[in-house]
Write a structure and sequence with these properties.
By secondary structure, this protein is of the alpha+beta class. The protein contains four helices and eight strands, in the order E-E-H-H-E-E-E-E-E-E-H-H. The strands form two sheets. It has a six-stranded antiparallel beta sheet with strand order 1-2-3-8-4-5, with no helix packed on it. It starts with 16 loop residues before the first strand and ends in a 9-residue tail after the last helix.
């Protein structure tokens, strides 16, 4: 994921990772729930039979991942790891819930955890900002081409009931188009993008 760009879709079921020379982002624990359930999708699309529930579930997952890709958001709760050669200004995949740990590598190769009192989070902006606490400085990591700073964090709106209604509706539109046409139609995509436009995040790192 490049600075100033939106997130890319991730394959789930294993830790997926993509990176640039500056930093990488790894999915540690994916969401355990989808924003839109199979039953909700079936009601929306007036599907009565149960013999395609597995397909519906797969298409809902694909629709959710596409929405996350378009907006840069994390919808349901997931755990991520940021890795880079410097300390970031912001953390991707908002909304941020909590920072689990910040670690850096010493000159002797030892990973050290930065005390939580030595940094602060500004969660009023999106994406959330992270910076050294007032009167302190980030400890200097070892200079190397591979990652020398690791930040583990939890992000997402929460459970399905916490995801904004316009985002859930966009997922339903995408699903309905994929189910009926096996790929999103242009008109549906325009409606989806209009629904998601207020939620999109431009990442600044």
């Amino acid at each position: 994921m490049m600075s100033g760009s939106l997130s890319r879709p991730l394959n789930e079921g294993f830790s997926a990772q993509y990176s640039t020379p500056a930093y990488g982002l790894t999915l540690i624990v994916g969401p355990t729930e989808e924003p839109v359930s199979v039953s909700e999708a079936k009601v929306h699309s007036r599907i009565i039979l149960d013999d395609e529930d597995a397909l519906i579930e797969s298409q809902l997952r694909a629709a959710r991942m596409h929405v996350e890709n378009l907006t840069g958001l994390q919808l349901c709760t997931a755990a991520w790891r940021w890795s880079g050669v410097y300390y970031p200004c912001t953390l991707p995949r908002p909304p941020l819930q909590t920072v689990s740990s910040v670690k850096y590598i010493e000159t002797d190769g030892t990973w050290t955890t930065v005390a939580a009192s030595n940094y602060q989070i500004d969660n009023l902006c999106r994406p959330a900002r992270i910076e050294s606490a007032y009167g302190t400085f980030w400890p200097s990591p070892r200079s190397q081409s591979s990652a020398s700073v690791l930040i583990d964090f939890i992000s997402g709106f929460g459970g399905p009931e916490d995801v904004p209604a316009n985002i859930k509706h966009a997922i339903l539109l995408l699903f309905a188009s994929m189910y009926e046409n096996r790929e999103p139609a242009k008109s549906e995509m325009m409606a989806v993008e209009a629904l998601l436009s207020p939620e999109s995040v431009l990442e600044l790192v």
